[in-house]
Amino acid sequence: MSPRTNKPHEIVERALALSRADGCVVIADERSTANLRWAGNALTTNGVTRGRTLTVVATVDGREGTASGVVSRSAVTADELEPLVRAAEAAARGAGPAEDAQPLVEGVPASPDFTDAPAETSSAVFTDFAPALGESFARARAGGRELYGFANHELVTSYLGTSTGLRLRHDQPTGTLELNAKSPDRTRSAWAGRSTRDFKDVDPAALDAELAVRLGWAERRIDLPAGRYETLLPPTAVADLLIYQLWSAAARDAAEGRTVFSKPGGGTRVGDRLTELPLTLRSDPNEAGLESAPFVLAHSSGDDASVFDNGLPLKATEWVREGELKRLTSTRHSAALTGLPVAPGIGNLILDGGDDTSLEEMVAATERGLLLTCLWYIREVDPATLLLTGLTRDGVYLVENGEVTGEVNNFRFNESPVGLLGRATEAGRTEKTLPREWSDWFTRAAMPALRVPDFNMSSVSQGV
User: Fold this and answer.
1) Can you give the pLDDT at residue 3?
2) I need a surface site. Which of 17, 208, 216, 301 has the fewest CB within 10 A?
3) Could you tell me which CATH number the domain at 8-214 has?
């Protein structure tokens, strides 16, 4: 049995049959990727890769409770399959009772395509995109700018089998495009990114035209000091901030008084109003264009995930409804501890409820303020307030009397996404966006631009 000659569902069945534990969960992830990279208006590399990762979760019942052991390995051969299962069982027997122990999920109807071959991507995903990119290189060269960037498409087929009878499958395509335009002397830089399922909705020419405008804005340079500025945050920046907020919204952490969602004196802030704007922050595995796994796929346990919840069906969830906090992420275990509903994390995030104004219209309505391109190097400063710090990058522009009048220096910022929601005075049109900072982990987002009257640029940064 080589990792590419045996069918994934057969490997799942074989691993379950080898198990001697009281419970067993097996996840086979079949991954294929195709990519293009370019620099200086010329394609540099392209390639296709394929691989498999097998994760085995063993559960062992004892007098003090149920223990779990998890082992993941790549390219498992026939001779390595049984040792992998035994390693997971040994890890479970060597561990103490698992705090998050719950009965393994059962009763979920099998996926009708569970025994089908995995979906795979290939260079064919770029059939239309690559020629259009080449035409953009020619236009950029003629316009005196250089294009750098990459396009990546990944297709992961996950097969989930359990000793309680679950047989589930999910195909997840993920495409990202990042494009930088630079002046030949490298003093000016502009960035644009897109998230896509299949590259059919990505237009390199439109992106290049957008970047050409921004490089033109940057021909005039204006130095500004640190301070609080009215700021327009584009959808990509809003996504990066709110994804971190979602990652920090574990119900148990909030109930134990450790996060911005903890209520002073005890309990959580569920039910509190976070913003006066009628904004709804939600996730939905069936959201058109942002589809994600409709059941829990947990390769490890943590504050907001549990291997015991594998296979638990996911449904549309509102984290914030019309400005009010409605849900915190919770496993079955943490929900029982906090008394809150079970609400596992979902692989997309949408903020809507704005006024359908475009970012360009928001610029036109600005007397004086800053327009950001994106945020970078975001790190947490204080979990109690969810204060984050990070940098602006690839273009901060000054808006005066409804027009962009030049590029200003970059800044370090210090802000809390919860605080920003509370102070935002306008939300525009929700659109699909690529979160630049978190694009390696979370790509499926749709956000509006936000107007914040006093965004805190805490210091000047010398980055481009």
Assistant:
1) 43
2) 17
3) 3.30.2290.10
